[in-house]
């Protein structure tokens, strides 16, 4: 039953995709010759003007380009023309850097807040104010203080991935079952061993769920951050291709961003499953 | 009564604001004795056990174990929790080995495992050592809890209604095993229960508590049956129904209407139903 449901869902998905691609294809086909002009002038004007062709690229064009990007991911022809693989790698390094820094801060701090009701109450007002600030609002401040655009992007990623992880860690640690803590107490387990062998595994599913939310947000934010700081990265690539008026490349970038984001989410989802324990 | 009891509870009380859950508790547990505590919900049974375990602080009074006042949890007093409290991310073996490591931090892994396995086999779970708690039945989980408590070779066991979540058949089997293991190892045990038959089977002394708030120890019933009793022919013993009736009568009537006028909390009354029926059973 489950496999047949999965099969039917796959069929519906494929049909929807095919329908979408077909509609897209038909909508961008063009209406044929609209003006009889001098061929040289027609070349100058492009297909949009002379053949009624939409400026929006069709699916074949985009997929063809996609294939081209996949087969030439790492070429480097100077600052404005790099393979999409290189651009994605720049973005990933920034995301993982900022995310890693956030892990290093959020996990210990989350433990502290989760274990100490005093710290929880004392720090809560700060979190409430800091949490709703758009990470990009920090950008000017980061550029001014750090004085390095790439490091500023990493800082922005750090700030945006910090809160979900911090709050989830604190929540996970605070809601470890009392009976497990009592077991540790009656066995006279030391604080470090209690933290690593009881609280950490007990709270791990909640902590990793926070990390999963964080990496999703970080991937959302990196595109906007790179549009601002420029130079490298998939966000810069999107903006650069917009300036080149290459809608095909913009669409390709959008697709790539989606695929990489999905992959990041799947990795974390798998980690969550790995540490989840049945009760 | 031994001259120097292993556990001495002196004037224990727990109050929340102005209301006392229980007060003026005096009782002793001798080395190797199995003591059950019976009372209705709300008389603070679990609080008493937690105080003995060192998990909770009483509002008043002291508890001496082995002549020393307790000040927090200790590996000498192992607790078997009502809800088994196994760590679900650890296998059966790891759960027990976790406790073993706490007791003997210097042991290497092989020694810890061997020691843990010995106790897992003692409770009959040798084949399930590598399973996770979620793969076990309720009775098996509670056995692991018992193995974990015994593995640290404590000076006394504290059990908080350990069998109440189990079905009757499993409960019976486990009671037999606990009885066997405790007698084999001469364990000192303090157990909370609300099951009269369980108390009669297991306990040497049964502490009866009045209803809360302000619960006190009404009396301490001495089990007058031989120690080598077992569940199968318990009810054939002539004392069985006398003890049972005495306990039930207490739980139904006297726990509510306890006469405090002649009551001296420092000397809880000992009753021996079965031996001195003429004097005890005629009391109001």
Automatic annotation (TrEMBL), chain A:
Coiled coil: none annotated. It is a multi-pass membrane protein. Residues 88-272 form the ABC transmembrane type-1 domain. InterPro entries: MetI-like, MetI-like_sf, NtrB. The keyword Chloroplast does not apply. One of its GO terms (biological process) is monoatomic ion transport. GO terms for molecular function: nitrate transmembrane transporter activity. The gene is ntrB. This is Nitrate ABC transporter, permease protein. Keywords: Cell inner membrane, Cell membrane, Ion transport, Membrane, Transmembrane, Transmembrane helix, Transport. PROSITE patterns: ABC_TM1 (PS50928). The chain crosses the membrane at residues 88-114, 152-176, 217-239, 245-264. Belongs to the binding-protein-dependent transport system permease family. It is found in: Cell inner membrane; Cell membrane. Probably part of an ABC transporter complex. Probably responsible for the translocation of the substrate across the membrane. Its main location: membrane. One of its GO terms (cellular component) is plasma membrane. NCBIfam families: ntrB. It comes from the Bacteria.
Automatic annotation (TrEMBL), chain B:
This is Nitrate/sulfonate/bicarbonate ABC transporter ATP-binding protein. Its main location: membrane. GO terms for molecular function: ATP binding; ATP hydrolysis activity; nitrate transmembrane transporter activity. SMART domains: AAA. Keywords: ATP-binding, Cell membrane, Membrane, Nucleotide-binding, Transport. PANTHER family: NITRATE ABC TRANSPORTER ATP-BINDING PROTEIN, TAURINE IMPORT ATP-BINDING PROTEIN-RELATED. Residues 7-236 form the ABC transporter domain. NCBIfam families: ntrCD.
């Amino acid at each position: 039953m489950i496999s047949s449901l999965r099969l039917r869902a796959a069929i519906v998905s494929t049909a929807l995709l095919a329908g979408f691609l077909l509609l897209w294809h038909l909508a961008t086909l063009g209406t044929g010759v609209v003006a009889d002009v001098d061929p040289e002038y027609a070349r100058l004007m492009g297909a949009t003007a002379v053949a009624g062709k939409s400026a929006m690229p069709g699916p074949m064009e985009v997929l063809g380009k996609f294939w081209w990007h996949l087969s030439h991911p790492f070429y480097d022809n100077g600052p404005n023309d790099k393979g999409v693989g290189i651009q994605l790698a720049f973005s990933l390094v920034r995301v993982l850097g900022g995310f890693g820094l956030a892990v290093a801060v959020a996990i210990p701090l989350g433990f502290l807040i989760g274990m100490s009701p005093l710290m929880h109450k004392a720090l809560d007002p700060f979190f409430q104010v800091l949490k709703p600030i758009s990470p990009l609002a920090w950008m000017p401040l980061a550029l001014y203080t750090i004085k390095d655009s790439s490091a500023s992007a990493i800082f922005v990623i750090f700030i945006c991935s910090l809160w979900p992880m911090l709050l989830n860690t604190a929540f996970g640690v605070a809601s470890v079952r009392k009976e497990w803590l009592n077991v540790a107490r009656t066995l006279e387990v030391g604080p470090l061993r209690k933290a690593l062998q009881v609280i950490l595994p007990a709270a791990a599913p909640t902590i990793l769920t926070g990390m999963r939310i964080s990496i999703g947000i970080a991937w959302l934010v990196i595109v906007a951050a790179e549009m601002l700081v420029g130079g490298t990265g998939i966000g810069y690539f999107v903006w650069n291709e917009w300036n080149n008026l290459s809608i095909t490349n913009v669409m390709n970038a959008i697709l790539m961003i989606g695929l990489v984001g999905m992959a990041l989410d799947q990795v974390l989802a798998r980690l969550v499953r790995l540490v989840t324990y049945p009760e | 009564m031994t001259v120097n009891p292993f556990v001495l509870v002196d004037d224990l009380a727990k109050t929340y604001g102005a209301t006392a859950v229980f007060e003026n508790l005096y009782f002793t547990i001798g080395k190797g004795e199995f003591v059950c505590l019976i009372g209705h919900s709300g008389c603070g049974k679990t609080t008493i056990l937690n105080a003995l375990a060192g998990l909770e602080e009483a509002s008043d009074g002291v508890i001496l174990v082995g002549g020393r006042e307790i000040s927090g949890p200790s590996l000498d007093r192992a607790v078997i929790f009502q809800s088994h409290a196994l760590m679900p991310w650890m296998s059966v073996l790891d759960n027990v080995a976790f406790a073993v490591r706490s007791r003997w931090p210097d042991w290497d892994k092989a020694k810890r495992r061997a020691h843990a396995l010995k106790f897992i086999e003692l409770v009959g779970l040798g084949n399930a050592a590598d399973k996770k708690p979620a793969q076990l039945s309720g009775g098996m989980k509670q056995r692991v809890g018992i193995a974990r408590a015994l593995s640290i070779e404590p000076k006394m066991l504290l059990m908080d209604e350990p069998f109440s979540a189990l079905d009757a058949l499993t409960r019976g089997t486990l009671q037999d095993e606990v009885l066997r293991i405790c007698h084999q190892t001469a364990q000192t045990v303090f157990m909370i229960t609300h099951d009269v038959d369980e108390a009669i089977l297991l306990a040497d002394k049964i502490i009866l508590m009045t209803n809360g708030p302000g619960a006190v120890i009404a009396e301490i019933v001495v089990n007058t049956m031989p120690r080598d009793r077992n569940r199968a022919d318990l009810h054939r013993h002539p004392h069985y129904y006398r003890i049972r009736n005495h306990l039930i009568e207490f739980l139904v009537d006297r726990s509510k209407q306890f006469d405090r006028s002649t009551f001296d909390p420092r000397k809880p009354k000992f009753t021996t139903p079965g031996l001195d029926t003429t004097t005890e059973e005629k009391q109001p």
